[in-house]
Amino acid sequence: MTELLQIENLTKKFDNQVILDGINLSIQKGEVLVLVGSSGCGKSTLLRCINGLEEIQNGTVKLEGKEVKYGDKNLPLIRQKIGMVFQSYELFPHLNVIDNLMLAPMKVQKRNKEEERKEAIELLRTVGLEEKAEQFPRQLSGGQKQRVAILRTLLMHPDILLFDEVTAALDPEMVREVLDVMLNLAKQGRTMIIVTHEMQFAKAVADRIVFIDDGKIAEEATPEQFFEQPKTERAKQFLNVFSFEKIKVNGI
Amino acid sequence: MNWEFIEKYLPMYREAAVLTVVIGSIGIAFAILIGLICAMVLYHKVPVAKHIVNGYVELSRNTPLLAQLFFLYYGFPKIGINLNAELCGVAGLAFLGGSYMSEAFRSGLEAVDKIQEESALSLGMTKYQVMKYVVLPEAISISIPAFIANIIFLLKETSVFSAISLMDLMFTAKDLIGLYYKTTESLFLLVIFYLLIILPVSVIGSLVERRLRYAGFGN
Amino acid sequence: MPDLGIDVLLKGSNMLRLLQGLWVAMKISLVSIGISIPLGLIVGTLMTTRFKSLKVIFRIYLETIRILPQLVLLFLVYFGSTRALGWNLSGEMASIIVFTLWGTAEMGDLVRSALVSIPKHQYESSEALGFTKGQMYYYIIIPQTIRRLLPLSINLITRMIKTTSLILMIGVVEMLKVAQQIIEANRMTSPNAAFGVFLVVFILYFIVCWPFSTLATHLEKKWR
What we know:
- The complex is a heterotrimer of chains A (252), B (219) and C (224).
- Chain B has helices spanning 3-43, 49-61, 65-75, 85-111, 114-122, 127-157, 169-180, 183-214.
- Chain B has 219 residues and is mostly helical.
- Chain B starts with a helix and ends in a 5-residue tail after the last helix.
- Mean pLDDT of chain B is 91; it is low at 215-219.
- By secondary structure, chain C is mainly alpha-helical.
- Helix content of chain C is 78%, strand content 0%.
- Chain C contains eight helices and no strands.
- In chain C, α1 (14-47) runs antiparallel to α6 (133-163) and α5 packs antiparallel against α6 (133-163).
- Chain C starts with 13 loop residues before the first helix and ends with a helix.
- The model of chain C has no long low-confidence stretch (mean pLDDT 89).
- Chains in contact: A-B, B-C.
């Protein structure tokens, strides 16, 4: 296995508050990494740093040896290799689905329009949205929008995909359709970093779980280890939040 | 109502209306240009320039067009700057309208979510591409209603041009009232011609607004 | 330093006359806004009720007032009333009539849209909490409406003051007219007076309007 992404000693401060504190992390090609932790622990900020959306105070993020650096003029080039999907979909409201998909490949990578269109339609078909190609984002449900947003990053042929709580804004019945798309991507051997609160999904999709607490990596483990026998007290507390004791006995 | 009188002076009103429309359109075109530039300066918080723009916006919004025009038309020649009435009309309208257009654009730009930009950046677009393909089209479509309201406002403001002796519709009406006492006919023609100029813009405005709300904006 | 003619204003009572002209304009806008606000509140509130015909009539009234330049309205009332009704309206009176008609229309529309913009669930949740109708309006609906309404109404005042500049065209002696008279009277001794005097007029308008519009912007930001 080859190392794709390398994070060394990453430190992010906001004003004087430390958000991320000396993160060291590397991801192999084809690996699916799930970041978990309570809200405000810094996991979303970590994703944003990997995409160069945040200025960092110390450390480096490297994709295949090339540094991802906030404000750097080569950043757009490296970003083409790093796909990111946001919680709030962020489709472009003034463009229909197909144009949302084709904008970046056409303008950024200057690819052939006809081939691009074919590829976009093909991708839409794989997630069952080919008949929505000419519709505008506001005509789609949240789950449909998020699937289109995922395809939009796929069309750039990225090396790694970042998912930032992509199901958090969805109605419960739409969560599954988005998670299924992600499971499929994992099966195809894509490299992915996922921030999520869906613990069942995390268990199913992850090769490795990274538990972040208070801006530091508190625990790194396989899903089995992490969910069955968490090592740290903080991780136990965190996982307890997701389980309920039965309070009614015999239907009383 | 004396229809003969109306028929006789119709061409005069037509000429005056053309003058209003021509000067109005040129002034509004410049206002849009100034507005775009100012909004960009404010949006990007360009140092120094943003203070100048802020000062200009305050000055322009808190003074009446007529005072601006009098200063331009009667005041400026005294310091050696001679502008004819037409040029004053265009300059005054551009000075007034620039700040209104700037506000419309700026609020459109600010209405585009920061995270929209980030999602475009994350696709590998350069800042310039993000501005051109994502932020500007969204901002413009958001500001179109305010934009058309401003155009109507500016067209109405052109009615003060007669005060700097431009032979516009007001000038013509006042002239005819003074000369022939045909008040009813003169006022009737005045209203009709203003409606002919402003109603179409207002109708187009509400159509566009509806289209923006229910369908999609461009491609 | 070239002669900019500002010194003309220091002669005799010239500056005082200019300020009196400004006061004439202010008086007309304050009287008009004073009448427009209560009328607008009534009209706007009526607009949110169910009377369909009332809504149609108000729409027509509002759109008619809005589509025509204020100067045209001033001409219609000032010249038209003499003709059609045989009244001999003074310029001041015609101005107050036009500004009140205009102000009521705008104010009514502001009140209407402020009332409509309060979401329905605000009413529902206050009812669910057990408020009486009176309490609901007093504690919940009216405070929210005022927050939306006040900045826009203050802006209407600035708009009105600026629009008073037009009334010199129907013969009212306000600030711009006084300025013209001063310049004319001193044509020989101070040929450059047009620059200085109109500059001062420009600045005076700014001094009067700026506090209102700044207050409106401030309130809008604070209450957003």
